[in-house]
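--- STAGE predict ---
source: upstream dedup step, 1 unique chain passed
mode: sequence only
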Amino acid sequence: MSITSRPGLQAVYNLEIDLEHVYYVSTSALLVHNSYPNTPGKKAPSASAPAKRATGITVLGHYPEYVNVSEAMGARRFQIPESVWNRMTDAERWAANQKFLDRTIAHGDQIILATPAGNARPGSWFKRELEYLMGKGYRPSADGTRLIPPGAP
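--- STAGE serialize ---
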């Protein structure tokens, strides 16, 4: 990996991924954030990844079901590039997943389950997500296809 200085002004695009302005790049999984040069706080124009739109709906489930359902709905989902995921420890993977779940809670998203809650495989990331959210007061709907937030009827 190297850094190359280029003369003159260069276009820089700040991708907005799941409402975040930081993201991993390259095979080294560098965490980056772009902004206009010499203008603190001013962000470059954003381009949202379609599968990560702020729709108010988040889809969870086993792979590939949650990917297929989220794409069909234009909903949010947890997604880290495979090349990055493969280099992460299980603790780093869970920390990233937990951050995503915490943002889902903070956004007040409706949570759709692509895989019914009763079909969550023991030891899977999906099962762990369900346990985490249930620990926050969520409960599965009667048909197991949604998570109902705490305090909702």
